[in-house]
Design a protein that fits this description.
The chain has 299 residues and is mostly beta strands. The chain contains four helices and 34 strands. The protein has two domains: 92 residues, 3-Layer(aba) Sandwich (Udp-n-acetylmuramoylalanyl-d-glutamate--2,6- Diaminopimelate Ligase, Chain: A, domain 1), CATH 3.40.1390.10; 182 residues, Hexapeptide repeat proteins (UDP N-Acetylglucosamine Acyltransferase, domain 1, 3 Solenoid).
């Protein structure tokens, strides 16, 4: 999430009542999740296992639960609960309303057809020549390009599935990102595309999504991808251009799938994949899978 105006290290520290290491006027441009963070942004970390990853990330401000050596050119915000304070910062600077309060009129391009039952949040932009069918829900800050076709009961911009367990209950990381659907995309019936936690979930130009597909927060689907029904893609994945994903594929978070890859039905993806054709509960090259099956049958 990018702040509407840059903040300073001292102003953010005062707001969350945290100790800080760095100059008072150290500039802060926004917040972001570890997989997407950039220079000028805050990332949070609350477990020693991930200290090095956060401190060595692109982030220049680290919201952390322990005083550690501060890397050169960076700043620290030291909090007794970084998860809580990350939420506090995001809520304070966010414009997300979740359909409550005053809802601004969306920007809608010429020749677009939107069914009266469609629910549209704040600050939504819809391009030209779009068709949006009944009971679609479009969350705050969603951007839809030209020639986009969205079938009934699809939800764009739901909350991310991002929780921690605290005192026996689950505590949600607030989602303040958005969804961008580029030109010439088709989305089927009953799909759910979560908005980014602090960044953007993207459906790339010319991609086609079948029915009942789940796309997790901050995932980027490339151009001209074809995704069949009941596929589930976790958060922060990068699906490069021209990838084909057949039905009931499941994908873990934070993975990259190289351009031109084909994932056959019911494949489980638990690692980054180079270009190829894959199949199996733990994805393996389809030719290797077939060779293994032949050997087993010949035993």
């Amino acid at each position: 999430m990018t702040f509407s105006q840059p903040q300073t290290l001292k102003s953010i520290a005062d707001f969350i009542q945290a100790k800080y290491i760095g100059s008072d006027d150290f500039k802060i441009l926004g917040t972001n999740e570890i997989h997407r963070v950039k220079a000028g942004e805050i990332v949070f970390v609350n477990h020693p296992k991930y200290y090095d990853k956060a401190l060595n990330s692109e982030a220049t401000i680290i919201l952390i639960d322990k005083e550690v050596d501060c890397p050169e050119g960076k700043a620290l915000l030291i909090s007794d609960d970084p998860f809580r304070d990350f939420n506090k910062i995001n809520l304070h600077f966010s414009t997300i309303s979740d359909f409550f309060g005053d809802i601004s009129k969306p920007e809608i391009g010429e020749n677009s057809k939107i069914h009266p039952s469609v629910v549209i949040g704040n600050n939504v932009k819809i391009g030209k020549n779009c068709i949006i069918y009944p009971n679609v829900v479009i969350g705050d800050d969603t951007v839809i390009g030209d020639n986009v076709f969205i079938q009934a009961n699809t939800v764009l911009g739901g909350n991310a599935f991002y929780y921690r367990k605290l005192y026996g209950n689950y505590d949600r990381l607030i989602s303040v990102g958005n969804v961008v659907v580029e030109d010439n995309v088709q989305i089927g019936v009953g799909c759910t595309i979560d908005r980014g936690v602090t960044d953007i979930t993207v459906i790339g130009e010319g991609s086609i999504l079948d029915n009942q597909i789940q796309i997790g927060h901050d995932t980027v689907i490339g151009k001209r991808c074809l995704i069949a029904s009941q596929t589930g893609i976790a958060g922060c994945c990068i699906i490069e251009d021209d990838v084909t994903i057949w039905g009931q594929v499941g994908m873990a978070s934070g993975l990259t799938i190289e351009s031109g890859t084909v994932l056959l039905a019911k494949t489980g993806v638990n690692r980054n994949l180079k270009k190829g054709t894959y199949f199996g509960a733990i994805a393996e090259e389809f030719r290797d899978y077939l060779k293994k099956e032949v050997k087993l049958r010949n035993l």
